[in-house]
Write a structure and sequence with these properties.
Blueprint (H helix, E strand, L loop, with lengths): L2 H11 L4 H12 L8 H17 L4 H13 L20 E6 L2 E8 L2 E4 L2 E3 L2 H9 L5 H4 L10
Antiparallel strand pairs: 1-2, 2-3, 3-4
Helix pairs in contact: 1-3, 2-3
């Protein structure tokens, strides 16, 4: 299947009836389609067409996703960090604290949180919590007591 053919097939999905989408699902997946809405079917069929044309996920990626699905989180030892443990500029850190989601962006010369610039992750964590925190522990980059 070439790229043009895949693009044509994907474009045709929006003009198909639900019955046609379900038949296509059965043909491509060799299973009955799940009870779902049109949007779900179109998205999954789009992925399947591309997967058949270009290949799917690497085995390593599939295993990692399975582990994450079972545990609900990525194992800390599997997180990829740049050499020396430095965070790359543009990295977004997300943390829930007391029912509120907090987002912090790594800058080349500090950290940005809610439009304010901070010199360290600890300063951001202290600002959010009002108490002293190790920034790497607060943001889940390191466990309590773990060496840098």
């Amino acid at each position: 299947m070439n790229n043009i053919n895949v693009i044509k097939q994907v474009a045709a999905l929006s003009g198909m009836s639900i019955a046609e989408l379900k038949k296509m699902w059965a043909d491509l997946h060799k299973t009955e389609p799940p009870q779902c809405n049109r949007s779900f079917l179109e998205k999954r069929l789009t992925y399947r067409l591309q997967e058949l044309a270009h290949g799917g996920l690497k085995n390593e990626s599939e295993k990692r996703l399975e582990r994450m699905a079972v545990s609900g989180v990525e194992a800390p030892q599997e997180r990829k960090r740049p050499p020396g443990g430095q965070l790359l500029p543009g990295t977004r850190l997300v943390r829930e604290w007391k029912g509120e989601e907090h987002r912090c962006t790594v800058l080349s010369d500090g950290f940005e949180y809610q439009g304010r610039k901070f010199g360290s992750l600890s300063a951001v964590a202290n600002f959010i919590t009002g108490t002293k925190w190790n920034g790497h522990v607060f943001w889940g980059l390191r466990r309590q007591g773990e060496k840098a």
